[in-house]
Amino acid sequence: MSKEKLIIAIDGPAGSGKTTIAKKVAKALGYLHIDSGSMYRALTRKVIKEKIDLDNKAELLKVVKATRIDLKQVDGKFIVLLDGENVSDKLRTPEINKNINTIAAVPEIRRYLLEIQRKLGKDGGIVMEGRDIGTAIFPHADSKFYIDASIEERTRRRFKELSDSGKKVDLSKLEKSIRIRDEKDKTRDTNPLRIAEDAIVIDTTGLSINEVTQKILKEIEK
Ligand code: C5P
Fold it and tell me: How far is the CA of 35 from the centre of ligand 1 (A)?
């Protein structure tokens, strides 16, 4: 790689394979990988645990501001610390999925996370993935990608992921929940999911993780 310390933004809908791909791209470049969705997930976990009324914005913001989220890479593994507790394996629950859009739609919460995310990328050398990385967090990122796949394929991937980790899931319910989450992410007022004008769009339907990773690495090298 000729240039160093780039900022790479990867956005896309749920189940598009962003996390797996971003991780591989970061590894190949020797960069830090940041899964911004995990920050929204961690905050949602805390709000649920503390039984905060999601309509009570003042209370919600109070909790958020008193929360500490740290992202670390330990032995090549990405871990999320919520107020010091490693919650990495506790963030992909149906309950969090159900409530996360409400949290992610609060402008003050997005601004709060935007600042943390920008700080993480200030020196470059980062692959950050999410919904608004190329459009809002790093509008001047060196390379931007928008990763998509058909809803059927995305549902299949999530289904496999969940089944592999021993979780029982109903395929049609899963598809419905992915559709709802996408719709909410695309239609919120603040920094909705959309394709940045200068993003390279990759439809990963039928492509392997390695094929997508190689495509991205080639584009970055250009
Ligand atoms: O990427 P992941 O599916 O884990 O993201 C979970 C949720 O977090 C998304 O559906 C979205 O509501 C929110 N999110 C967001 N902006 C980001 C990353 C995630 O609004 N940059």
Answer: 9
